[in-house]
Amino acid sequence: AVPGHVAVDHFTKVYGSANPTFTARYDGFVNSDGPGSLGGTLGFDTAADASSPVDHYDVTPNGLTSNNYAITYAPGVLDVTKAALTVTADAVPGTVAVDHFTKVYGSANPTFGVRYSGFVNSDSPSDLGGTLDFATAATAGSPVDAYPVTPQGLTSDNYTISYVAGTLDVTKAALTVTADADSSTAAVDHLSLTPI
Hints:
The mean pLDDT is 93. The chain has no helices and eleven strands. 0% of the residues lie in helices and 37% in strands. The chain is rod-shaped.
């Protein structure tokens, strides 16, 4: 990848992207010859393409000819690295805004959802491993406040997963206070005055 170096440097690309431009280093020219002294057209063979999963792939030069040199080709390596994937807790995943979840004080937590950003190659949540879960301090007994809700639990060979917390807003429960002569019954009992 860096022809001026003695080491065979690896080519790199991110999963889902096109292959980089490949280059070659030449060893063995004499008489001030150079690549321009060769015939044919330098090309490269590799099994890697934009859809290739994270792995290491051989990249082998080919296509050159010469009347003066017996040409051998030594493969290099293309490293396909993980793409970035962001998983954001969001009450309405179809919108751009990060929408808050809500629940009334005393009720169970709602069903949480997420929005994904970064899938390539027509990948989807079904291509991820693990189990999507959420971490939050909020419970049915949590007082009115705003609580972080953080996704977790997913894995992938092809993505580096980052999690972005959403927010659960616990709102006030309704409370009615009614004047009642006998608060032990459901009926609204009338107050009565006895003349003196």
